[in-house]
Each structure stands twice: as C-alpha cells, then as structure tokens.
Amino acid sequence: MIAKNNIHFDKITSTNDYALSIKNHFLFKEGLIISTNFQNNGKGQYNNNWHSEFGKNLLISIVIYPNISIKKKFDLNKIASLSVCELLCYFGLNACIKWPNDIIVNDKKICGILIENIISNNIIKKSVIGFGININQIKFKKYNIPATSLKILNQKCYNLKKVKKELVNYFFNNLFLYRKNKFDFKKYNDLLYSLNKKRNYLIDDNTVEGVIKEIDHLGNLIISVSGKKRIFKEKEISYIF
C-alpha cells in the first residue's frame, strides 16, 4: 500500500533492504517511510537476525538526506536513539540507550536500530534509519539480552499506527533540532545504559569491570577501567548480561 510518502507491506524481507533497493527510484526521497506487518529476514546490527511476530510490533524504516561528513555518522544514531527514548517516555516508560544501537527498559531490550548510509566523497548523502520496536508481542525467543515490549511493561495493547505516528514526529523533530544546531547531545549521554555504574564487560575475551563515562563525537564508547579512561569502537567491547 502506498499513501503519500508511506509504503506499507503485509510481508517483506526487510524494510531497510526494500528502501535501499529503490534508492534510485523517484520515491526514494527524504521523508519516505516504509513499514510492514512482518519481515521474512529482519536484521539488526552486524547482520544479526531480528525476529518479530506478525502484526505485533513496529517495523519501520525512514529515509533522510543528511548531507553530513562521514565523521558525524554516529550523530544519526544519537538522533534515532533519543527519539525512541522520548517515544517510550510518552508511553510512561523510562528507557536507556545501550551503545551502540539498542534501547533498554528494566534491563531488557525493547528496540533495535539499524542505520545504513549511502556515502559519496566522505559525505553521507542518504540514510535509511531502521527501527524494530517491540509493541504488542509477549513471547520472545531467548536472546543474549532478554526482550520486552510495551504490552508486557504496561499491560495493555497499542495501536501500531498511533505508535508509528508518534515515533515519526519525535524523529523528525530531533532531526530538525540537529540541523538547527539545537539537538540535545547531553540528554542523549544522560540516557546511556549503565552510565557511571560499575559493571562487567567482555574485552578481548576477558571479563573486565568498567564504568561508562560518555560517547564521544565519533561514536566511540569511553569507559573508565582501573581508573583509566579507555576508548572503544563498535565490536571491540561487549556488555555482559
């Protein structure tokens, strides 16, 4: 179904994959929203699979034209992550951002974000921002990070169209603020999961105790280990649950 800048499918392999498959089509413009009731091959970061029951969750990709330096690519993650946290706050939940791309409530994952960029001359020209948010599903497979949903947390069912509308509003509001140099980076940092708390992490197959201090402007994780600040890129460190 196509309506204005919205394309909705009953089933599709992946909303991100579909968006990228039409990157040369006239429909592929900023503001295009692709959603589905079910993904045959939903994916998360690093090609991990994303499983979702039919018609239970919000599976959506948003197309934007950032036109920013590749050095600022993690800014898109910050915009997307904060938008989901604000959405969940709207529904009465206190969410945290687990670096680099998960949203956590009560130590359980409620959302995953996957951002894929089209880059030319070190400029991010176009981006597909993919969200998978657990809404009405109550049974999940066992994952490294246990899963939860709005329905589990609030004991009620939600209208997916309403949730979708709210997410899109929060996202584009934050994108607008970013482009006006008014985006609240501090708020993003304050919502980091386990910020300033001791916990164990896996580094080079070793369990290490550390304290998250911040995410730098390049999207690296800054952790204090044995009193010394260390910088980690994605995949160099893992949370232990």
What does this structure look like?
The chain is of the alpha+beta class. The chain has 2 domains: 2-190, 2-Layer Sandwich (BirA Bifunctional Protein, domain 2); 198-239, SH3 type barrels (Roll). Helices cover 23% and strands 32% of the residues. It contains 5 helices and 14 strands. The protein has helices spanning 15-21, 73-90, 150-154, 160-179, 185-190; strands at 2-3, 6-9, 33-36, 58-64, 68-69, 96-98, 102-105, 108-120, 123-133, 198-203, 206-215, 221-225, 228-232, 238-239. The strands form 2 sheets. Strands 1, 2, 3, 4, 5, 6, 7, 8 and 9 form a 9-stranded mixed sheet that branches. A 5-stranded antiparallel sheet has the order 13-12-11-10-14, with no helix packed on it. Helix 2 crosses helix 4. The longest helix is centred in the last third of the chain and has 20 residues, at 160-179. The radius of gyration is 18 Å and the shape is globular. The chain starts with a strand and ends with a strand.
Order of helices and strands: EEHEEEHEEEEHHHEEEEE
As for the number of domains, it is 2
Shape: globular
What CATH first level of the largest domain would be assigned?
A: Alpha Beta
Secondary structure tally, helices: 5
How much is the average pLDDT?
Answer: 93
Radius of gyration: 18 Å
Low-confidence residue ranges = none
CATH topology (fold) name of the largest domain: BirA Bifunctional Protein, domain 2
Strand content: 25-35%
Helix content: 10-25%
CATH superfamily of the largest domain: Bira Bifunctional Protein, Domain 2
